[in-house]
Each structure stands twice: as structure tokens, then as C-alpha cells.
Amino acid sequence: MLNSKKHITDVQQLLSNLDRENKKIVFTNGCFDLLHKGHLHLLKEAKKLGDKLIVAINNDASVRKLKGETRPIETLEIRIEKLIALDDVDYVISFSEDTPIMLIEQIQPDILVKGGDYKIDEIIGRQFAKKITIIPLLSGFSTTKIIGEGK
How far apart are CA 56 and CA 125, in angstroms? Predict the structure, then answer.
């Protein structure tokens, strides 16, 4: 199911596939558990900033460590399938660490994007990107809220 050219299994494969010449590389990351309108907004706005959008996604163990034992709601495979189905996403790579700092350091994106719940000095890997962009959140959309409301 995950045999898409968009799904990249290691950073060296990504770097060899990535044509950087005259291209702006945009990077964002997250758990993307229960993909919702807020996620879609972030990804669409991130893609507008450059030519190639790389999305790094926490693996299941990493999500559990960050969000608790009841998460993720959907498996890594399902979360990746949803992301690679989006036109705005060029590449998806998973990571098992607490943060994607090693990926960001190796990729050296032109633009590092995070949602409006972050302040610039809280963004992991900011020193390895040429520019940091914070996309304002769409109010009312979060996985935690969806789970809490049972929608």
C-alpha cells in the first residue's frame, strides 16, 4: 500500500530524489493523527511557500511517547497513506525520535514551517533552515478536541 514515490523510507533516499536546483524546499512535521481541516490548512499554506513540501511524521512509538498510550488513533501506515494522497505533499518520511532535528539537519530546508501554536524560539531545527514560517492555526480544529467531542 505504501509503495508510492512520495513515501520515502530513509533520508538518503530523500536527498537523492530531491532536485534542489532552483527549487525552494519546505519542511514541516507532526503526528498528523486523525488528519483534519487544520492539518490540511497547514499543509496547503506550507506548499504555497515553495516548490517541494516534505512532511516528516512521528512513528507510532514516538506519538505514544508524546501524546500518551491511547495515541495514535490511526497507525503510521494509515497516516502516511492519507498524507501521500494529498496533492500539496511531495514527500513523506517517518521518524522515531522525539523530534525531527536529525532530518532537518540533513535536509537543510529553505523554509521550516510550524503551526501557530509554536513560537520561533521553540521550533526544533530552526538553526538548519534558511527561513522559519509560522502558519496561523484554524481555530477549533485539533485531534485532541475531536477525540474529546467524539466527532
Answer: 13
DSSP string, 113-145: EEETT--GGG-TTGGGSSEEEEEPPPTT--HHH
In a 3-state reduction of DSSP, which class is residue 45? helix
Structural domains of the chain in order of their starting residue, each with its CATH number: 7-149 (3.40.50.620)
Q: In what order do the strands lie in the sheet with 111-115?
A: 7-8, 91-95, 52-58, 25-30, 111-115, 131-135
What's the CA gap between 59 and 119, in Å, rounded?
A: 24
DSSP code of 25?
E
pTM metric for this prediction: 0.90
**Strands 131-135, 111-115: pairing kind:** parallel
Which pLDDT tens digit goes with each residue over 96-137?
999 999 999 999 999 999 999 899 999 999 999 999 999 998
Are the CB atoms for 97 and 63 separated by under 8 Å?
no
d(CA 116, CA 65): 22
47-71 as b/e: b if 16+ CB within 10 A: bebbebbbbbbbbbebbeeebeeeb
